[in-house]
Specification:
The complex is a heterodimer of chains A (about 300) and B (about 300).
Chain A: H1 2-35, H2 42-46, H3 59-90, H4 95-108, H5 112-126, H6 133-157, H7 161-169, H8 174-203, H9 206-209, H10 241-251, H11 257-291, H12 294-304
Chain B: H1 2-42, H2 44-47, H3 53-58, E1 62-63, E2 70-71, H4 74-105, H5 107-123, H6 126-145, H7 152-176, H8 180-188, H9 193-204, H10 206-222, H11 225-230, H12 248-255, H13 264-295
Antiparallel strand pairs in B: 1-2
Classes of the chains: A mainly alpha (about 300), B mainly alpha (about 300).
Chain lengths: ~300, ~300
């Protein structure tokens, strides 16, 4: 009887804890949205920040964040895909592979501030670029490369081997098989992983403080592309939205620093929400488009085995 | 004809193969470069500035700006350790409960609501966690305990939320990997669900759960901004849970830009970065050890 009571009590405890965590997320979103209400106003989204007066916007920071995301994805997705392909298809079991895996593990567990400091040494001081957007992008690439590699490797390994064997038997080389047969089949999984990684890239801050800097030059689309004022120039300092929140909190002197930080946090959280929903939709849609009823065939295979 | 075939094969196989091999090697090269750069810089405070290793690791005095400068890293190492351990202690029971809930109590609610909730919690940027800490937690602590609110306790609470999804997802994987027959056998012997979970399932998934805890610890140790925003950043050992202190990552984010490259102060900060790097190596070693013991 006692054990039945204990069972019931513990079941209750589990429900309470689960509800508590859901409640926590609701509380977070409610706080962020209520404090940062009005974050969608164009004056704020696209306006210039002011250092002394209230009412400034976060236009340049938002542009920097988005541009940083694009550049980082352009660098890190090909590299991650390449490394994932290498690990899944070409690497031979043995010492070398173990060493590469150890390196990936090491890289994945590096604190982001350490990566930022490496960026300070390598991309800021050594290259002589100073604080640049590209330096920041390279630093976040280092942070995300292990994760992307793992996503791509797993996606490729998940492709049923009979597809691959069929292609090889028809006389295709391994590379042709990979590009024309395996990658299309692995694409839904890779896309989902990349979108989720994009969310993380968008939210990264610690690695950027010492690589992309805490300032942004006055941006002007009319300027020459080589001048630091042009928004698309990657060799310019670029304070992102996340860094902006941190700076406002630690050294903000604007009278409405709190409101700006709250609204910026709201933008960030909305973006995170968007990336999560996009990842879900993309995986469903792409799966349907590329592989039809892939899940069914997989089940059949495992039954046969 | 044969020659042409060879060329064709070369084009359609080896170029791609070379490219992806390069990508694989790039990871190795980058990792080695990071270690080399950080250590090369971090070791300078011992070789150039004559700070002794003993002082760095065992002295609690950090006075780099004094006329008689002292570079003891104990405060930061202790601060980081305490805040991470506290976060793990607070987070692990909740994470474990969530993992059990997702796998055994209500898989439907778990996969429909809890998993997306955890994914969103992972996605929230660390500065936003810091901001939430400053906005919700600090005023709450101030009202309940008085004082300033910025404290070790605040850091622990913020971090525990941040590492919750990490521990939960790994513990959940570990629990779901336990063979179903274990559960059946336990039920067959007449146990209740709680007895089966607490005496059979959780012990069987021990290795995976420990891995999750260490990963959570590693993440907590490396987290910089969220902790820095709420912990108070006072350079002294904490006298209790509700007293401000500083962490390795915090002092690095704040002071690296304020010091001039090449000075003893700056080099000492690089040494702190090196210590942080070694601690993250230690966590990898720990995870590998746990994995190896689990295989046996």
């Amino acid at each position: 009887m006692v054990s039945r009571m204990a069972d019931k009590v513990w079941t209750g405890v589990f429900y309470v804890i689960a509800a508590f965590v859901v409640g926590l997320l609701v509380l977070f979103f409610a706080t962020i949205l209520s404090k940062g209400w009005g974050f969608w106003q164009p004056d704020f989204l696209f306006g210039r920040p002011s250092n002394t007066q209230a009412g400034g916007g976060v236009g340049p920071q938002l542009i920097n964040s988005l541009y940083m995301l694009v550049i980082t994805l352009l660098i890190s997705v090909p590299l991650g895909l390449g490394a994932g392909i290498y690990l899944a298809e070409y690497a031979k079991q043995g010492r070398m592979l173990n060493f590469i895996r150890l390196c990936i593990e090491t890289m994945a567990s590096l604190p982001s501030i350490v990566v930022g400091l490496f960026g300070l040494l390598a991309f800021v001081t050594l290259t002589g670029w100073g604080y640049t957007l590209i330096g920041g992008a390279l630093a976040i690439t280092i942070l995300n490369l292990p994760g992307l590699t793992r996503i791509c490797e797993n996606a490729i390994l998940d492709v049923p081997s009979n597809i691959k064997e069929g292609s090889l038997a028809l006389g295709a080389t391994r590379w042709q098989t990979l590009v024309r047969v395996i990658l299309p089949a692995a694409l839904p999984q890779i896309m989902t992983g990349v979108i989720l990684a994009a969310g993380r890239i968008f939210g990264e801050a610690a690695a950027l403080i010492y690589t992309a800097g805490l300032t942004t030059p006055l941006l002007n689309f009319a300027a020459d592309v080589s001048s630091p004022a042009h928004p698309l120039n990657v060799f310019r300092p670029a304070e992102t939205l996340t860094v902006h929140i941190w700076k406002l909190n630690s050294e903000g002197i604007v009278p409405d620093a709190k409101i700006i930080a709250a609204k910026s946090a709201a933008i960030l959280v909305m973006m995170v929400l968007l990336f999560n929903i996009a990842a879900r939709l993309a995986s469903v849609a792409l799966q349907r488009y590329f592989a039809g009823n892939r899940r069914k065939t997989k089940k059949k295979m495992s039954n046969a085995a | 004809m044969k020659e042409k075939g060879k060329l064709y094969y070369w084009k359609s196989e080896y170029i791609g193969r070379a490219l992806v091999t390069f990508c694989g090697l790039l990871i190795v090269i980058t990792t080695i470069l990071i270690i080399a750069f950080i250590c090369g810089k971090g070791i300078q405070s011992f070789t150039q500035n004559g700070i002794s290793l003993k002082e760095m690791l065992f002295s609690t005095e950090w006075k780099p700006g004094d006329s008689n400068p002292k570079y003891g890293a104990v405060i930061f190492i202790a601060g980081s350790t305490l805040v991470s351990l506290g976060a793990v202690l607070l987070s692990t029971p909740i994470a474990l409960a969530l993992a059990i809930f997702i796998n055994f109590i209500s898989p439907k609610f778990g996969s429909a609501i809890l998993k997306p909730v955890l994914e969103l919690l992972v996605g929230i940027p660390s500065v936003v966690y810091g901001w939430l800490g400053v906005t919700i937690l600090i005023p709450l602590l101030r009202e309940s305990f008085g004082g300033v609110g910025f404290s070790l306790l605040a850091g622990i609470i913020v971090l525990s939320v941040m590492i919750l999804p990490t521990i939960t997802s790994i513990a959940s994987d570990a629990l779901s990997a336990v063979p179903f027959s274990y559960l059946e056998a336990s039920y067959g012997l007449g146990s209740t669900r709680w007895q089966a979970i607490s005496r059979v399932i959780v012990p069987a998934a021990k290795t995976g759960i420990f891995t999750g805890i260490v990963l959570g610890l590693a993440r907590a140790f490396g987290e910089a901004l969220a902790v820095q925003m709420v912990i108070g950043n006072t350079v002294k050992l904490p006298s209790g849970l509700y007293s401000p202190t500083a962490t390795l990552t915090g002092i690095l984010t704040m002071d690296m830009a304020n010091t001039i490259n090449g000075t003893a102060w700056n080099n000492a900060l690089w040494t702190l970065a090196m210590i942080l790097l070694f601690i993250s190596f230690f966590f990898i070693f720990l995870i590998r050890m746990i994995g190896r013991r689990g295989e046996r």
